[in-house]
Design brief:
Layout (H helix, E strand, L loop, with lengths): L2 H12 L7 E2 L5 E2 L17 E7 L19 H8 L17 H4 L16 E5 L3 E6 L4 E6 L16 E8 L2 E7 L19 E8 L4 E9 L8 E2 L3 E5 L4 E2 L12 H13 L1
Parallel strand pairs: 6-7
Antiparallel strand pairs: 1-3, 2-13, 3-4, 3-12, 4-5, 5-6, 7-8, 8-9, 9-10, 10-11, 10-12
């Protein structure tokens, strides 16, 4: 199906949401176009396909977590000063050193939430799995009672442990996040001590809120507490599509040519 047809479907679906904001449904294909009914939140269940809402009057950025920048340590400020992000217009795509754009690195946690595509939650006996439409990204959150590893192997999405604090609140702690990822799209970087805490709150059947706290004694002078993210459950049977970093919107030949020119100067 072509992108024009996708746009028509997305416009049709998102127009059914009124009063709370516009849902971004990415490129997924609804195989059954049917509105989500109102109702109470299911008990200890986040399953389904979720898409981010932009609520009027609420802070909602596609590049960072708070209206004001975080308080950085000297180490964190030095690393941040070396970042050349392309999200605020200061640097072009040919000039950026954003690892997601120049090397197609996975965005990591929690930056993955800035990609405007849906994610799906599915369960097994021992883990909650988050399937992000962006770049085939799969995240495993263990729910079998294990503890966070004391000396974690660095992973792009870290080592995540989750537990329910009540029937509607799910808390995830992630450590061991690969240092090559950025905390946001503006270029705030982190050490191997980064610890990310996510609190998922199922408000009702259709609505989900996520609060995120980032702690890193090496990079951050104090915890960075993100503004709340808002999500809406998609219509039944919505299916994720495919967004590939390397194939859909990046021309790596341009990056390679620019790098070669810079090396020869």
């Amino acid at each position: 199906m072509g992108r024009v047809h996708f746009s028509v479907i997305i416009l049709t679906i998102t127009s059914s949401f009124s009063g709370t904001g516009l849902a971004q449904f990415g490129t997924g294909v609804p195989v059954d176009i049917e509105p989500v009914a109102d109702g109470p939140a299911p008990v200890r269940d986040l399953s389904g396909v979720w898409t981010r809402l932009r609520l009027e009057g609420k802070f909602g950025s596609g590049s960072t977590w708070t209206p004001e920048p975080p308080k950085l340590t000297e180490w964190g400020q030095e690393r941040f000063s070396m970042a050349r992000n392309s999200n605020q217009g200061a640097f072009s795509l040919a000039e950026t050193n954003d690892p997601v754009l120049t090397k197609c690195y996975p965005p990591g946690v929690p930056r993955v939430y800035f990609h405007p595509y849906p994610f799906e939650v599915v369960y097994t006996d021992k883990q909650m799995i988050m399937l992000y439409e962006y770049d085939h990204t799969i995240r495993r959150i263990f729910i079998d009672g294990r503890l966070s590893p004391e000396d974690p192997v660095p992973l792009w999405l870290g080592n995540s442990i989750g537990h329910w604090t009540d029937d509607a609140t799910f808390v995830v702690t992630t450590v061991g996040i690969d240092e090559r990822t950025w905390m946001d799209r503006s270029g705030v970087q982190h050490s191997d001590q980064l610890r990310v805490t996510e609190v998922f709150r199922r408000i009702d059947l259709k609505n989900l809120e996520i609060d995120i706290t980032l702690e890193d004694p090496v990079a951050l002078a104090e915890p960075w507490i993100a503004e709340t993210l808002y999500y809406r459950l998609t219509p039944p049977h919505w299916e994720l599509s495919e967004i590939s970093c390397s194939g859909d919107y990046l021309d790596f030949a341009n990056f390679e040519e620019n790098l070669s020119q810079n090396n020869n100067e």
